[in-house]
Structures are given as structure tokens and as C-alpha cells.
Amino acid sequence: ANKKLWGGRFQAPTSKEVDQFGASIYFDQLMADEDITCSLAHLHMLAKTHIIDQADADQIDAGLRDIQADLKKGNLHFSYENEDIHMNIESILTDRIGPVAGKLHTARSRNDQVAVDFHLYVKRRLPKVIGLLKGLMETLVTMAEQNVETIMPGYTHLQHAQPISYGHYLMAYYQMFKRDCERFEFNQHHTDMSPLGAAALAGTTFPIDREMTAKEIGFGQVYANSLDAVSDRDFALEFLSNASIMMMHLSRFCEEISMWASYEFNYIEISDAYTTGSSIMPQKKNPDMAELIRGKIGRVYGDLIGLLSTMKSLPLAYNKDLQEDKEGVFDVFNTIIPSIKIFTHMLQGISVKKQNMYDATTNDYSNATELADYLAAKGMPFRQAHGIVGKMVYDCIVKQINLQDLSIEELKQYSTLIDSDVYEDLKPETAVKRRNSLGGTGFAQVQKQIQAAKAELAE
Ligand code: ARG
């Protein structure tokens, strides 16, 4: 005989290694509270629709609440023989209240049960991620506000390109995290949908009320198709994909923070509280947190690719393969929540070495575009101006001076269009201030962006 909840059809017990290998209780016990919550909703609906007697329902209700209380206290014991969280809870319930427990699974399958638990798990946690991202965005706005007029080199190809406002740089990341938030919000729209009542795959002959269970659990919608309801893991894939994109943004930021804290750049200093030392080199102050967050992207991408690969070519509807959907999602929540939190705290403790940033824009040729624009504004075709300034840069490199070091007489040898007002244009602060096109680094534009961001965050 086979003593499993589903053992009736079997003559012999399953092998121990099948039990061990097939079990998901090792990790899906993290959804215990979701499982009980969804079972309670299902139970109340069964009673309301007279599918089971109210007296039986009351007994089951009390039993489930008892289990929920023990779960909070950490008093439940799960076993791999009961395979997963669903059958573990049902088996504990049966131990406590007897065979009436068996009525709970009327008009339900583990296929819609696991799906609804998993949706609820993600639905409950997405707001945490969105909230942390909003906190990070607020920090960025605060820092940007203090640094609208902080001048730094802007890079392309990691070469000095044009000077920019550090506030503008910070707001660039604000915009990325804002889109990340929007993606997670859209993700919530797809997660906020109840598969419960799809039963095994085809729905049920019992007169269930899916809207009722959805409402009690707190879902905004129900799945329209029972096959889709038990097969869909898009909401989890979207989460993993959104998390990957968000971590990609964080990793770029972390990379820049690590570079800028280096001796070579020396633009910023990370606080002692968010750096670490070396066990051998006494002078070291390492940006460990930035590196670790940058490194954690590996597992997040891995979890995304893992589930995408598991889902590929899976026939409808439920397949045991789908049991592989949960660990990656749990892992990603456990990875991104502390990553955003610690990153935000690290950012708040960064001090900016404004003079070093500024100096880096005066010992280079990042004002070359200003000079070419100056000539173009005086009527010279831009291409010709570009050529002349290129030659000037070359001559200055040979002489080991910068463009602004050339005397007015020397400048005029390149073009008679140049007057002494050019020196004002060659200053980095002028270059930044004047880039006032929409979304540009000009101080007024950065202020505008900050005001818009504040309004968005206040909503
Ligand atoms: N532990 C299973 C999972 O995580 C629950 C669903 C099992 N359903 C089934 N028909 N075997 O996917």
C-alpha cells in the first residue's frame, strides 16, 4: 500500500529517493503563510456556496488558524514524505482535526493551489521592492539638489567628453530607477490575478465562486482561462527580468563608484561604515559593498535564464518542471532587497571631492566642443570648425598646454573669428550652464528635472 494523500491507485510505496528528490518542502515552506491564507479563502467560499457544510468548514477553519498560529511561533514540523507545503499543511490539519480535513481539497488541485500561493508570495513582496527603489530615488534627488553646480567630466568611451553637472549625472540614475519602478508596478498588475478555481487544468463541476476567493485573498482579477491559470509563470519571469534590468542599473552605478573611489580618479570617498579593510595591506579602504552588489547580478541573471530555460517548450498545462520556478524567485527577492537597501545607505555616506572633479575638467580638452560651437555660432560650417579645433588640440598636446592657455594672438592664427570672449566659453562651468536644451546638463535644466522628480515622488 501507499500511504500518500494520493496513494489509493498505488500498490507499493514510492521509493525513498523519489520522495527526497521530488520534494519541494525544503524551499516552498517559505510560502506556508500564503498557503494557509489561500486555503482559508477557498474554504470560506466552499461553505458560502454550500459545497461543504458550515459546521465542517468551521472545524477546518479553526484547524487552519491553529496551524497559522503555530507557524508564527515556529512550531510546525514539515517532512519530505509529504512532498510540498500544500500536502504538509493538509497532513498536519488531518492529524489535528481528523478526516473532515479532507473536505478542504474539494474543487481544488495542487496545480491551482501552488499557482495561487506563488502569485500571492510575489504580490506581497513587490511593494517592498518598489518602496526601496522609491527611497533610492529620493536619495538621488536630495544628492542631485546639492550638486546641481558641481562640475565633473562627462565621459564617452571612458574618455573625457564634455563637462557635466554631477547633479545631472545622479538624475540619470534617478530616471533609470524610475523606469524600474514602473516595470515592477506593471509586473504587479500581472501578479495581482487569481488562478484559484482553475483546479487541475479544466475548472470544476462544483459551483465555485472564483471572484469570491480572489476578493478574500486580495487579488484584483481572476485568470480568464483555467489552462493558462495553472501554466502561467509570466509574472515570475517578469519579476526576474525586471530585477535583472534593475540590477544591471545598480551594477553600472557600483562600477562607477568603485572607479571614482580609486586613487586614479579620486572623485569621491565612501564612508568608513560602508567600506572594508585588508587583512594584509594596512592602507586599504575597499569599496566592498559596491563590488558585492555588482557581483550579485550574476545570480539574478542566472535565476532569470534558469526559469526561462525551464519554461521553454513546456506543454500545457501543469508539469512537474514547474516546481523549479520558486527557488530563483525567492533568491532574487533575497538578493535585490538588501542590495537596494545597502546601496542607498552607501550612497548617502559618499562625500564628493568637488575640487578634484572640477580640476579633471580643466586639465583636459573637454572644452574643445565649446570652441568648435563658438566658431560655428559665428557662421563657420561646423565640420570646418571641428577640423580647426582638432588641429588646435593637437598643437596644444605637443606644447603640453590646454586650449584656454593659448593667447588671443595665438588663437587668432587659427581663425580671425575668435575674440577674447572665447575664454568665457572655454570655462567648464560656462560649458555646463549653457547646455540648456531640454534634458541637457545646463543648471536650469537639471533644476527642472529635480523639480519634476520631486513632484513625481510626492504623488
Ligand atoms: N510542489 C509542486 C510545485 O511546486 C506543487 C504542485 C504539484 N502538482 C502536481 N500535480 N504534482 O509545483
Automatic annotation (TrEMBL):
Top-level enzyme category: lyase
Argininosuccinate lyase C-terminal domain span: 365-433
MF terms in GO: argininosuccinate lyase activity
Known pathway: Amino-acid biosynthesis; L-arginine biosynthesis; L-arginine from L-ornithine and carbamoyl phosphate: step 3/3
GO biological process, one term: L-arginine biosynthetic process via ornithine
Keywords: Amino-acid biosynthesis, Arginine biosynthesis, Cytoplasm, Lyase
Start and end residues of each Fumarate lyase N-terminal domain: 8-302
Enzyme Commission number: 4.3.2.1
One of the Pfam families matching this protein, by short name: ASL_C2
Gene3D superfamilies named among the record's database cross-references: Fumarase/aspartase (C-terminal domain) (1.10.40.30), Fumarase/aspartase (Central domain) (1.20.200.10), Fumarase/aspartase (N-terminal domain) (1.10.275.10)
Catalytic activity: 2-(N(omega)-L-arginino)succinate = fumarate + L-arginine
Gene Ontology CC terms, in alphabetical order: cytosol
Protein location: Cytoplasm
Family: Belongs to the lyase 1 family. Argininosuccinate lyase subfamily.
Full protein name: Argininosuccinate lyase
Source species taxonomy: Bacteria, Bacillati, Bacillota, Bacilli, Lactobacillales
